[in-house]
Each structure stands twice: as C-alpha cells, then as structure tokens.
C-alpha cells in the first residue's frame, strides 16, 4: 500500500529496527540506545534515517526498556500508598529475605511510594459477606489524609487493601473518593490483578476497564512511559496521528499505545525475541531461545505454546502479572571481565552502552565483546562504524589489545606465584579463557530451564539471536549436547522482527475462590463467558473481526491446603459432566504430576482465578519465496586470504562470508565467519552451516559435530577452574529448584528453608546452593559422620536419613538425606549428595517441634543418626520404617520420596559430568575449587591482627572468642576457650553450627564471590571446649542452638573483626497449632550498621534468610487474623550509621491453640560498634481477650483462646560510629568489607 511498517526493540545497549518497505523489501538498522551527543532518541532517529516523510508509515510496533530502566533507577512518578491499617510498611518488608545472603550491606531497592495513608478497614474471610464496613468517621479521616497528599503535590495513588481480591468494595469506595478529590491516577489492586497474595498484588498492576486505574508499579512507571511516548511522538508530524502505534507486552502480545503500562512492560523487548524464534524456529523439536545482547542474555523455551509465569521480581519489586518465562543471566557482550584470586570471572557488572566495552572508544572496561575482538571473531572492517566522538569510527582493536596485555600480566604473575612451573598464558589464551567462562555461565540457566524441569536439553534446537549470540552459539550447543543451531536471517534484530510477527492481545481475569465441583461448573462457565465477551469487545474496538480473534480460557487451580496453583487450559472432554469449554481437571492433574512427581488423590481442587486471553491475529506471513542455489554456485569467501580466528582449538584459517551473498542451498564448513549487517556468526570447526531451502529465506541451520575434544588434565588451570565452579554450583542449584517445585511443605516451597549440596569423596563440601547459611558447614559434618559411622556399609542405592546433632545435625526439624555416588570401577563412593529441609512437625512436646522449654533432645521430636531410608535402591516403607515409633514419620513419606528423587537426579548430573571429563579430572577440580576458596580466605586473614570478643545469651551464658592470626601464612586459630558450659535448656549448639557460622562470616568478609566449600575453613583451626554450649553432650536439647545461638556466634565473630554492629541476633521463632494444624515462622528484625552503611530495617539477617508467609495466605490457611505487620521506628541503634529497625507483628487467634515462642535479645541488646548505640531489645506480649497483657518472656509455651492477641516486637540492629559533623571525615576503621 506504499507505506512503511516498523518494528523496534529499544534495548539496554542497542536499538534494533526492522522496517518493511513499500514493494515488499525490508531494511534493518542498529543504533546505540543512548548516544546523546548525536541524537535524543534512538527509535525516532532510526525511523528518520529510513524515512523522509511521516505519511508513508502504516504502523509502528515497539518494545522498550524505558519502564525497566525507570524502575531500576527509581525515576518514576511521585506517588503514595493507601493500605489497610497495620500494614504501612508491608511493601518495604516484602517477604523479609535479603537478595544476597553474604552482603552485610543489604541493598534492597527503595519502595516506589513517597508517602503512606492507612485505612481503618478490614475484610474477614469465611463469612457470607464483607464485615467491618468503612463508616463515615473513617471516610472523613481518609479525606483529610488524602487532602494532605494533594497539598504535597502527590496526585498518584496505589490502593492495596487486605483480601480485596475476593471482596473489592472497600477499594472501590476509596478509589471513588480519591478521584472525586482530584487525584489524576488511582490504582486499585483488585482491578489490577485479582489474585491472592497481598505483597505482589500491591506491587503490580495494569490498565483495566476504565482510564486512570493504575496500581503501584503503574502509578509509578506509567507516567515515565507516557513522557517517553510523548517525546517520541513529538518528533513526527501531527504526533503520529492516525498511525497505528503498538507496544509489546511482557506476555508476548501487542497492545495499543494508550493501553500500554508499566507492569506489562518489564519484559517488552525480550518478549519480542520469544515471539520471533517461536514463529520462525519451531518445527518438530522443542526450541531453546538464546538471546545474547549487550547487557545480559535471556533464555526461554518454546514447544508449541508460550510458557507464562504469573509472579516475578524485577529491581526488587515483585510483580504479579502474566509474563513469558524468560530467565536472564548477567552475561552479555558488555559483561565486564575480572581476574580474582586465581579465577576468571565474567560479570555480573556490565559496561552498558555508555561507556561500553574498551573497543567502543569511550574509555570503557574489558568485556566479552573485547575478548571476541581480540580473538579475531569480530572483524572491525565489517562492524558498524558508529564509534568515537563523530560516530564514524570502527572498533578500536588496538585499545582492546593493550588492555588485555595488562590483564595477562596480572594473570601470569598470580599463576607463577602459585606454581613456579606454570607456563605463561598468551593474550589470546586469556581472552579465550574468558569466552569459555562466559559460555558456561550462559549454559547454567539453560540447564535450569530444561533439566530441572524434566526436559532433555540435548533434544532441543538452540535458536540463537541477539547481536552477540552468533559468536557463542556453536560452543554453547556443543556444551549442552545439542546437535542443531538455528539462526534466522534477522537474528541480530530478532526481537524487533518478532514484534512485526506478533499478535495483539487483551486479557481479562477475576478471582473465583470456589471448589472445582459439579455444582459450580455452570457458574464458572458464566464467568468465562463474561470475560470472553470483554476480550471480544476490546479487540473488535481495535479493528479485528470476530474471525480473526481467538480466545484462550484458563482456570488457576490448586489442591486445597496447598499454595502452588497452576494456570490450566482445557483439553477436549471425552465424556461426563465437564465445562462447556473442556476438561480442566485432567490438565491440572497431568501438569501437577509432570512438574511435581505426584498427585494428591481425593484432595479437593480449588479454583483461585478465571483468566481469558483474547488474541487478535495479525495474519503476518513468515515465509517468502526467493531464488535457491542450484548447488553449483558455491558460497565464496569475501577475503582473498582466510583470516585467523581462535575457536577453542588454537588459531584456525577462517573463511569469511557476507550473509547477503548467500543463497538457499549453500553449505559452509567451519571454521568460518558469516557477517551480517547486525551480527557476526562463528561456525566452529567440525560444524557445518546450511542455508535453508525449506521456504524460509536465507536462514542458517548449523549441525554441531563432535569436534576436537580438548583433553583436560588434573593439573590446575585457572580457566577450567572457573568452568568447573559453574558446573558444580549448577548441580546444587538444579537439585534445589526441583526440591522446591516438588515439595508440598510451605517451609520448602514458600519459605525456602532448605539447602542442597555436593560433597567430595572425603565428605568435604564442594558446592552449596546457599539458601540458609546455618546449613553451610553443618551438612559437611553430617556427611563425614556417616562415613565414620557406617564405613563400608554405605552401598550404592542407599539414602541415609539423619538429623541428630552428634551426626552433624543442626536441630531435629532439619532432616538431611545423604546419598553416595558410585561407579562400577570403584567400591567406595566417588562423591556424596545431600539435601536438608525444615519440617513443620516431627513430634516433640509442642506443635511445630520447637518446644521453648526442652531440656533433653527426646522432648524435641524424632531422632535419627544413620537411618537407611532407602536400602539398595528400595524405599524402606515397610520393615525398618515400622520400627519408628513416631506418628510423624508416615505423614512425611511423600516428602521423603521428593528428597530421594532429588538426590537421584543429582547423581545423574554428577555422572554426566564424569562422563564428560573423567573421574580423576572432576575429583581433581573439586580439590582445586576448595583450594581457591582457601586462597581467598588466606588473603583476607593477612590483612588483620589478632582479635578477641565476647557476647552473652539472654540466660547469661557467654560465648567467648580469641582469634590468633598468622599474617605470613594467612591462617587463624578460632579459640572459643572460656565459653560457658552446656545449659539445661535448648540453647546448646552442635559443633556443626559453629563451623557454619565461621564459614558464613569469612565468606561475607571476603567481599566477592568465591566458591563456597570446605576450603574456606582450611586456613582456620577451630578450638571448642568439650561439653560447652557450643559442643554439648549427645542428649542435650538443641532446638534453640540452631536458630538462636548460631546468631550470637556470628555476632561475636563480627564484633572481633569489627566488621559491623550486631544485627537483631535472633530468628524470632513463632509456632502455633493443635492436633489439626501447625504453623511455624521466623520473623525479621533490624540489621546492624557498618563502616559505610545504615542497617536495613525489617529484614532477615546472617544465619537465616527464610521468607515470611504472605498475609492473605496466612489468613486463608490458618485460624488467625494478622492485625499488624510493620516497622517499629526507633528500635535501631543510633550512630554515624544507624542500625535497622525491628518490626511489630500482631496476630489475633480465632480458635483454641498452643502458642510457642523461642526468641533471644530480650535481655542483652544488639551491640553498637565504634561509638554506635545498641539496638533495642525485643518483646513478646500476649493480650488476653478482655483481660490483662502478659509478658511471655523470651521463651514460652501457652494456650491461647479466640480473641487473644499475640504481639511480637523484634530487636533492632546496632549503630556504627559516633555521630560526626557532616563535613567531617568518618572515623578510621580497623578494616572494611571489600567492595566490588
């Protein structure tokens, strides 16, 4: 029709533009996303360069990182939060876990809102209708508070009220009042995403049925998007009037510009790439999308339908909205390169678009792009000349070479100091080393996306795109066992091209909260019909005929008394009474079994939500007929002589081809480089690239050959060390992901109170996916105990259950399953695998198995030292299990099946690694990895002098520590002589707890990522007095030692090193229950301040990092009402840097229960350092219904009745440093944690 059609992906580094021109030709362009000296806006500039006059445009489709960047940089609109009274700080606290467990300076992005208004309202579940309706007095008070916001200039609100997903009356009324008063943007969480969970619903939102309804993210981000769009449109005549401007959403669908909003924009660009490869690459085999850009790499999976998730976290904000399941790893072309303590490290820091890599001529750091340039994989003469001050220069190869030469000197100096016979590495070997490490880091999320979900990675096709992906595709496919790589003609801009192919999508969703039973089917069908009509009318209003609209119906289903819901589409109903839309239950049970390994027959299924996805089909054709090669016209290299490029096997003579000169039918044998205008493709040796002839023009299909196998020896190689570090950690991570997916327990699935680890043949820790720090050293002790106790009785196919403190246990609820790994050639285990998870109830004198007054381990639950749960591969459900006289055991059999299956999955991964490298090499690198951790700790210890410190438990027991440092050797003696004897309560800590605390503290103080293993303890000699509180005798009670004493050990170590002030020093263990229900939680407090930072408020610290149950889930599953969960201002210690505040958590009980509290820091306050003030102590209060208020003390168990209220006040963190004038220099500290 004589008009241009544009599809644009504005990424973090580059903006990609695909234009379909009049006459059917296509044009592509790549620009730097940020280049202020040459143009104000990259998408507009790209369109300007392709066009001369605006009226030739048919449509513009675009994806953008504007929302993501605004969220990351916190540059959104001024806004306020309106929330149920008692929850003013809920979004600050979030799930109470810290993002990086070894960062003492806890960095959590700031909340989005500027002010808070609390509303005196409450909705109580399990009643016929809403109660506690808002009265006129409350409304008058609300108006007064809202008026104060308007006077501050705040006109944007997010309204988040408890249980509004099921009863929205209160939110609607608040919204009406706000609009009447003049607020321009109002968010109602119930109109945004009507799903249970208050925290993510509070963060999330979308533009719904009428204008000016936004949620927290949208109220913050949408104005930024609108400002950007206004600026973009203003550069065109008449602001693009009558031009179709569509934006890509995170769910893979397009939406008109006036409906584009913040929460649906977070994956706008990557979603285009998923659509692109799904439409162009998928045939009979499932496809892995590999999108390597300048800043990061996105991986995803497609097998006939898009895989969505409904809750994700971005920039510290939990978003509850449909998003494509895209996993991101911080390794892209711009990822920075480091050499630390003998290891090659890639990322996560990125050079971005400005300054960019060293070769961009802006003084940037060395990156992956520089490594490819150094190796001859990028040819400057064929790379866009868009660099330098005038934007007309090629890549600066000389600057890259100079920087790598300097880095190579550092590498060789370190290696020579460690090994005198070390042969120096060349510049190219160093660059190649970083490429190999980057490739392995990008393989990790692909393994997680496939193996951890039960898919065979090798059966997938790797669809490679993104500007940097083609240089790495062959190597990554070979590492993953894949045999085919597909690279589309527009691989360099596939995200933009995907937007040209995408459909327009509109979704409607509402809460159902009903049982999936026959009597509810007709009601569910009527609601589906209502939502379907909404989608139809919306898409019709955008110009789609009904024939071009497809409707997808979903029910969000879960088993009763579980929290894991699955969004299920129907299959065709064979017979019986089904919904007219199909059979949803079969889909649910099949998916549940596929994902979790079991179903729960007889359990009621709940419908949480109804969702309809309306798709307006774009009708864009992917294929086009073009001439094919006759087979005689072979592809010709554009170079008169082959260039020399390093491909992992040394330098190879490499032919160079221009993509534009290739025709279908051409065959290219590696080593070769194919140059496109927007990407470079490396065809490695033993790989063959075919230009396709199946109707898809000029796409490239690469067959991956076996290749030359680089023999890896047992001697230390820094590059291979980094690769094995990724592989070992990947095994532990994948075991952890599967355990979380398959577990029914809230403690595992929601609170993440578990750990998985890999151990060497000596039982020493090799890698640990760190969820819970208190498990770190303890699991190693558990494995080594079994080796000593059972010896040659450990056989292949055994699974050993253990929880006894003497056997390396932490406390009895933490059950550990240990399995040996054998090979046919070895009679002794070559490795061990283990996982440890917290169980809510394993018996004992109180519900929850956390008795506050226990004096003997027998009072704390079932005890296992070396119990063979599985013998010779057979689960011992009968026979030995019948000897266990404890009611809890049989109820845990399903969970033990989960733990057992996770272990055997881990064995498969270990054997896969052995098959690749050989047993001797894998075991050698286990030792090398441990030595590397040892080097990092020795370097730390050389910087400090001898130290000492002591602190007290609330019962007066002292923990005393002297640390003698040998600076020359970088070693230390941690001597706990003088520590109090074991006590007749449960604060006794098994020896393994102290080992975990020391590993944790050393890892924190190193200050950068090092392999977490037993090597951390090699430079340390630990002396603990026998039968002290840190090494009690076998029958001592220990339940409090794991959760309380462990925190005090950390406080003492940090005090000795003067690293930071004390954090809350407690996990605040709360349990309640009866014969029918049991609940356990640990609660956040204040973090200690440090030499350069304030302590975080309302966060879990040090030896725990478990999440808190969402308030709406808590009230839905348990007989309590959470009346308050907020910060307790002023409880953090003052100082130059203030400690974090503790929290107030208040629960109203609705039936007779037993409440138990097990807490510390109720007597001795968390200390401050260098003149900083201590944090406030905590308190546990019981407010009897129509009765007195009772101080429960730090440890107690009491019966509670309907109407009773428990009020928990957790401790604050200590301050650091005396207050100094703002112009003064901070006082000198003994040492600071090293900063990346």
From TrEMBL:
Single GO term (MF): 5-oxoprolinase (ATP-hydrolyzing) activity
Domain annotation Hydantoinase B/oxoprolinase: ranges: 717-1219
Domain Hydantoinase/oxoprolinase N-terminal, chain residue ranges per copy: 6-181
InterPro entries according to UniProt: ACX-like_C (IPR049517), Hydant_A_N (IPR008040), Hydantoinase_A (IPR002821), Hydantoinase_B (IPR003692), Oxoprolinase-like (IPR045079)
Domain Hydantoinase A/oxoprolinase: 215-507
Similarity comment: Belongs to the oxoprolinase family.
Region (Disordered): 1210-1236
GO annotation, biological process: glutathione metabolic process
Record-level GO cellular component terms: cytosol
Biased composition (Low complexity): 1218-1227
The organism of origin for this protein: Ciona savignyi
Acetophenone carboxylase-like C-terminal domain residues: 517-685
Lineage, opening ranks: Eukaryota, Metazoa, Chordata, Tunicata, Ascidiacea
PANTHER family per UniProt: 5-OXOPROLINASE, 5-OXOPROLINASE RELATED
Protein name: 5-oxoprolinase
């Amino acid at each position: 029709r004589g008009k241009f059609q544009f599809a644009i992906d504005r990424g973090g580094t580059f903006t990609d533009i695909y234009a379909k021109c009049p006459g059917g030709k296509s044009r592509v362009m790549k620009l730097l996303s940020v280049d202020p000296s040459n143009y104000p806006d990259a998408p507009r500039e790209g369109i300007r360069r392709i066009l001369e006059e605006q009226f030739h445009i048919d449509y513009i489709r675009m994806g953008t990182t504007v929302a993501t960047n605004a969220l990351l940089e916190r540059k959104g609109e001024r806004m306020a939060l309106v929330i149920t009274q008692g929850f003013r700080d809920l979004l600050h606290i979030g799930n109470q876990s810290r993002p990086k467990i070894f960062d003492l300076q806890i960095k959590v992005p700031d909340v989005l809102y500027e002010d808070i208004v609390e509303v005196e309202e409450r909705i109580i579940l399990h009643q016929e209708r809403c109660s506690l309706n808002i009265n006129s007095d409350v409304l008058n008070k609300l108006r007064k508070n809202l008026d104060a916001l308007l006077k501050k200039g705040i006109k944007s609100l997010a309204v988040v009220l408890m249980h509004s997903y099921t009863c929205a009356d209160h939110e609607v009324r608040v919204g009406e009042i706000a609009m009447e008063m003049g607020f321009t943007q109002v968010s109602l969480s119930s109109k945004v995403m009507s799903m249970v969970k208050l925290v993510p619903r509070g963060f999330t939102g979308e533009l719904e049925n009428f204008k000016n309804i936004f949620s927290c993210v949208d109220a913050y981000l949408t104005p930024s998007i609108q400002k950007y769009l206004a600026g973009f449109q203003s550069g065109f005549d008449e602001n693009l009037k009558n031009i179709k401007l569509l934006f890509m959403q995170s769910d893979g669908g397009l939406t008109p510009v006036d409906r584009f909003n913040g929460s649906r924009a977070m994956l706008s660009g990557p979603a285009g790439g998923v659509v692109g490869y799904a439409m162009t690459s998928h045939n009979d085999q499932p496809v892995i999308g590999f999108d390597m850009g300048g800043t990061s790499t996105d991986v995803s999976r497609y097998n006939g339908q898009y895989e969505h998730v409904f809750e994700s976290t971005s920039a510290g904000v939990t978003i509850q909205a449909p998003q494509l399941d895209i996993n991101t790893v911080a390794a892209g072309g711009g990822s920075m390169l480091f050499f630390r303590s003998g290891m090659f490290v890639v990322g996560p820091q990125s050079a971005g678009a400005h300054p960019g890599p060293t070769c961009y001529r802006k003084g940037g750091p060395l990156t992956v792009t520089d490594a490819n340039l150094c190796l001859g994989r990028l040819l400057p003469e064929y790379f866009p000349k868009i660099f330098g001050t005038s934007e007309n220069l090629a890549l600066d190869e000389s600057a890259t070479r100079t920087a790598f030469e300097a880095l190579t000197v550092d590498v060789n100096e370190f290696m020579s100091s460690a090994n005198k016979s070390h042969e120096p590495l060349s510049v190219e070997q160093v660059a190649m080393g970083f490429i190999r490490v980057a490739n392995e880091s990008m393989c990790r999320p692909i393994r997680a996306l496939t193996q951890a979900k039960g898919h065979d990675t090798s059966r997938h096709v790797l669809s490679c795109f993104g500007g940097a992906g083609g240089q790495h595709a062959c190597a990554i496919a070979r590492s993953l066992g894949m045999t085919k790589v597909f690279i589309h003609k527009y691989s360099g801009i596939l995200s933009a091209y995907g937007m040209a192919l995408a459909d327009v999508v509109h979704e409607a969703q509402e809460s159902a909260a009903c049982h999936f039973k026959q009597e509810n089917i007709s009601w569910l069908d009527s609601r589906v019909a209502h939502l379907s009509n909404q989608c139809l009318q919306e898409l019709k209003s955008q110009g789609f005929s009904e024939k071009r609209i497809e409707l997808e119906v979903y029910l969000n289903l879960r088993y009763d008394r579980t929290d894991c819901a699955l969004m299920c589409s129907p299959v065709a109903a064979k017979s019986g009474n089904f919904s007219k839309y199909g059979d949803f239950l079969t889909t649910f049970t099949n998916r549940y079994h596929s994902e979790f390994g079991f179903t729960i027959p007889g359990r009621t299924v709940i419908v949480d939500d109804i969702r309809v996805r309306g798709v307006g089909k774009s009708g864009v054709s992917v294929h086009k007929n073009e001439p094919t090669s006759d087979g005689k016209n072979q592809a010709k290299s554009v170079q008169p002589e082959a260039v020399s490029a390093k491909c992992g096997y040394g330098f190879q003579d490499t032919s160079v081809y221009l993509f534009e000169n290739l025709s279908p039918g051409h065959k290219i044998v590696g080593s070769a480089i194919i140059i496109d205008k927007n990407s470079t493709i490396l065809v490695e040796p033993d790989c063959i690239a075919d230009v396709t002839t199946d109707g898809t023009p000029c796409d490239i299909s690469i067959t991956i050959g076996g290749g030359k196998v680089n023999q890896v020896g047992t001697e230390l190689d820094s590059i291979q060390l980094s690769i094995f570090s990724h592989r070992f950690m990947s095994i532990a991570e994948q075991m952890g992901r599967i355990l979380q997916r398959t577990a029914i327990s809230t403690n595992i699935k929601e609170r993440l109170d578990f750990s998985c680890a890999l151990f060497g043949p000596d039982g020493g820790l090799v890698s640990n996916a760190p969820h819970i720090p208190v498990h770190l050293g303890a699991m190693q002790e558990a494995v080594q105990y079994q080796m000593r106790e059972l010896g040659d009785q450990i056989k292949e196919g055994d699974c050993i259950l253990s929880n006894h403190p003497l056997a390396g246990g932490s406390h009895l609820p933490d059950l550990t399953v240990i399995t040996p790994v054998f090979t046919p050639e070895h009679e002794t285990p070559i490795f061990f695998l283990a996982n440890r998870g917290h169980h809510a109830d394993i018996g004992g004198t109180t519900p929850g198995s956390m008795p506050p007054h226990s004096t003997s381990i027998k009072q704390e639950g079932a005890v296992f030292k070396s119990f063979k749960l599985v013998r010779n591969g057979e689960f011992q459900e009968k026979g030995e299990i019948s000897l266990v006289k404890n009611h809890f055991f049989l109820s845990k059999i399903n969970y033990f099946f989960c733990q057992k299956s996770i272990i055997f999955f881990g064995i498969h991964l270990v054997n896969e690694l052995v098959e690749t490298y050989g047993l001797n090499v894998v075991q050698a690198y286990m030792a090398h990895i441990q030595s590397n951790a040892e080097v990092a700790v020795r370097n730390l210890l050389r910087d400090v002098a001898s130290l000492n410190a002591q602190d007290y438990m609330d019962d007066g027991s002292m923990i005393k520590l002297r640390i003698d440092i040998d600076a020359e050797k970088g070693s230390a003696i941690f001597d706990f002589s003088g520590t109090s004897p074991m006590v007749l309560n449960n604060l006794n800590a098994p020896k393994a707890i102290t080992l975990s605390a020391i590993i944790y503290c050393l890892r924190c103080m190193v200050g950068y990522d090092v392999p977490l293993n037993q090597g951390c303890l090699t430079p340390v000699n630990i002396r603990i007095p026998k039968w002290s509180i840190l090494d009690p005798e076998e029958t001592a009670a220990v339940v409090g030692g794991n959760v309380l004493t462990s925190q005090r050990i950390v406080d003492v170590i940090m005090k000795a090193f003067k690293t930071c002030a004390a954090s809350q020093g407690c996990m605040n263990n709360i349990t309640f229950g009866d014969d029918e229900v049991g609940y356990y939680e640990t609660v956040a407090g204040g973090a200690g301040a440090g030499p350069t930072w304030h302590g975080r408020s309302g966060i879990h610290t040090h030896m725990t990092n478990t999440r808190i149950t969402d308030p709406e889930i808590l009230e839905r599953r348990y007989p309590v009402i959470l009346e308050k969960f907020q910060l307790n201002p002023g409880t953090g210690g003052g100082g130059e840097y203030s400690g974090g505040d503790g929290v107030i958590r208040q629960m109203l009980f609705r039936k007779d229960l037993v409440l138990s509290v097990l807490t510390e820091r109720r007597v001795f306050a968390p200390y401050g350092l260098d003149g900083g003030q201590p944090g406030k102590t905590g308190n546990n209060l019981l407010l009897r219904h129509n009765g007195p208020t009772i101080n429960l003390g730090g440890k107690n168990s009491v019966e509670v009745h309907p109407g009773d209220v428990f009020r928990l006040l957790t401790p604050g963190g200590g301050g650091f440093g005396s207050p100094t004038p703002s112009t003064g220099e901070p006082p000198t500290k003994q040492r600071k944690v090293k900063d990346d």
